[in-house]
Amino acid sequence: MRRLAGMAWGAGRVPDLVRALALSSADELAGRLRGTRAARGPLEPNEVPTARDLLDRHLPEHAQAVVERADRILAGELWLFGAWRPHARGELVPGVAAVDWTRDPLSGTAAVEESATVRRKGGREASVQPRDRTSWAPLLRPDPRSIWEAGRLAHVLWLAQADVVQGFFGTERSRGAREPGLYARALALHVRDFVATQPVGAAPHWTSPMEVALRAIHLALALLYVRTSPELDATFLVEAAEALWQHGRFLALELEDGQAVPGNHLLADLAGLSVLGLAFPELPGALRWRAKALPAFGEALLRQTSADGFAFEASLPYHRFATELGLVVQALARRQGTGLGPDALARLWKMAGVIERATLADGRLANLGDNDSSHAFLVEPRAALDGSQVVALAAGLGAPVLPSGIAPESLWIGGLAGLRRNLAVLSEPDRRRPGARSFQADGLVVLDDGRGRSATLWAGANGQRGLGGHAHNDKLACEVCLGGRRLVIDPGCPVYLGDPEERDRYRSTRAHPTLSVDGMEQAPLPHGAPFLLPEGAGAKLIEVGSDHAAGEHRGYARLRPGAIHRREVALPPGMPAVVVTDRLVGEGAHVAEIVWPLAWREVALREPTVEERAVLQALEALPVGEGRFGSERVAVLSEAGRAVALLAFASEAPFELTLVESTYSVGYGERECGRILRVTVRAQLPIAVTSVLVALVPRLPSG
């Protein structure tokens, strides 16, 4: 089996890293890694007994879950895109599956490299020779994003965690209990296998520097956890350190800073270099990486966020990703007695506050913009819209946010101090208040009554300063939660490069919970350019109150005659309902279509019952919305034949209701079945249509 160039040494040969450090042997370098070091990891060996006590008291099932995950990995499964998936290509040794590094876990097909060239950036000589990343998109089939996930080595971090907790309460039935040292040995086998089969510069796992950075973060954390394991010999420790060295050298040469507007890729590159420089100062060049990357990361963080901490990607999942990058860098920097600097740290705390405040009543982030399920670190399986771990870790590091519970991330990334502070903040009185959580300058409002009812209104600019990036054509879109469950959902986007036409469908106006006119996109959608969406709607918020918000956009001013779309979202007092009023201001005859994507399967169009009519009459008496609700047909959401919520509409102009099957995506590669309800109005402008979604039971069944 081949090993990474520069790492295959025969008997008597001094490894490149050992020679670069002017040491006498691999044993000497391994001794430095095992012993008392200048750098401190999140959880040092002498802190593990205390961590065990805290976990046993506050997260008693965590250790058992950790080893169960590790056993699944050994059996050939990986957690990929919201599910455990078989992803093996045989065995490395009996009982330890080998990962299929180049197979797409979603389609099952292997990566095919169509063309690539080896080059040196800027004409400089380098022993690290990455592929030409300027055209990585067409290099790989199928979609490279899904292939890259396993190569980020999050599962190696999980094996390291299993090695640490082995022997804790709840791990008695694990494979590791029967075979002491198994998880550390398996970790070494997986790292060696990746290094041997995916050499520096080769597709698919070296075609994007961001992927190299995320792999470096997971591998660095894993090595910090297991560096003192008696199962790992000097040879492996030096091999792993050399792999980190190669990752750092690659990133130092290949920072993605050449784009018109550098985005989250550059942030990830700098985070990877910072982590390596902070955690492994023994590596040649590490002090330079740290000195350059740490302040540059802080500067990039400030450039890519607003004064309120809102990331400029027009995507909340990408905002969470950027926040995670900042938190892991700050956590390791703090352990070394330094940090991001006061301005960047204050901005990072605001970014964590965005996640706290942009979480809806179902406990998940609003599904705004692209979501490719990326994480800067993955400590345990997480749903693609889960932001609770970020808030908990940020609280553990000192951010003024209120976590919803205890997250293992506060220990594995934030250390003992992080977990203790997470626990301390949870013991404080809950200072959250219902009402509007507004990021007015950035165009997002979240209305929440604190009792399971929330709604959003999005009137922000397209991402990456108007270029589009990860934005969708979705101005004035809103998601709705009632009874603690999300009913109206943004469709997300499950694919990037694997199917450009499908990507365009998911990011189009007619896929989102907003209004379209004459079938037109709010802004022209550039086909064949999956990450380009120039600003064209000029959306803005025009009013924000404690229980309502309003916005408008001028994307339909291109029509002849033109139209302006205004939308108001309100939480009426005393009723478990959300009322949305759409107005089209202008002249001429137009066809308006309001789209409601529903995260629900059992939906029917029918006449309302006597009891349902009474509910609608009570809503008509409230000072929200316009007109009387149509009594001929409403949309009814049912569970096991029992009506639990309904959608009704009021309009002076006649309207048609159409219900179609659909899919929506809560994470990359994830497609859930739902329904889309379309409300079509053909009329002379101006027109107004009120939609109301009302719960018929106090708490909706969980999905």
Description:
The structure is a single chain. The protein is α+β, with helices and mostly antiparallel strands and 703 residues long. The protein contains 20 helices and 23 strands. Helix content is 33%, strand content 20%. Strand 1 and strand 2 form a beta hairpin. Helix 13 crosses helix 14.
Shape: elongated
Quote the distance from N terminus to C terminus. Answer: 47 Å
What is the CATH topology of the largest domain?
Glycosyltransferase
Number of domains in the coordinates?
Answer: 2
- What's the rounded overall pLDDT mean? 91
Structural class: alpha+beta
Poorly predicted spans:
1-12, 114-139
CATH class of the largest domain: Mainly Alpha
Strand order of the largest sheet: 13-14-15-16-23-20-19-18
Major beta-sheet overview: 8 strands, antiparallel
How is this structure best summarized?
Helices cover 33% and strands 20% of the residues. It has 703 residues and is of the alpha+beta class.
Task: Give the topology, please.
Layout: H1 16-20, H2 26-34, H3 48-58, H4 62-74, E1 77-80, E2 83-86, E3 88-93, E4 96-99, E5 112-113, E6 140-141, H5 144-151, H6 154-165, H7 175-178, H8 182-197, H9 209-226, H10 234-253, H11 264-279, H12 286-303, H13 316-335, H14 342-357, H15 388-397, H16 409-412, H17 415-426, E7 435-439, E8 444-448, E9 454-458, H18 463-466, E10 480-482, E11 485-488, H19 500-507, E12 515-517, E13 540-544, E14 548-553, E15 563-570, E16 577-586, E17 589-598, E18 603-606, H20 610-620, E19 634-639, E20 642-651, E21 655-664, E22 672-684, E23 687-695
Antiparallel strand pairs: 1-2, 3-4, 5-6, 7-8, 8-9, 9-10, 10-11, 12-17, 13-14, 14-15, 15-16, 16-23, 17-22, 18-19, 19-20, 20-23, 21-22
Helix pairs in contact: 2-10, 4-6, 6-8, 6-9, 8-10, 9-10, 9-11, 10-11, 11-12, 11-13, 12-14, 13-14, 13-15, 14-15, 15-17
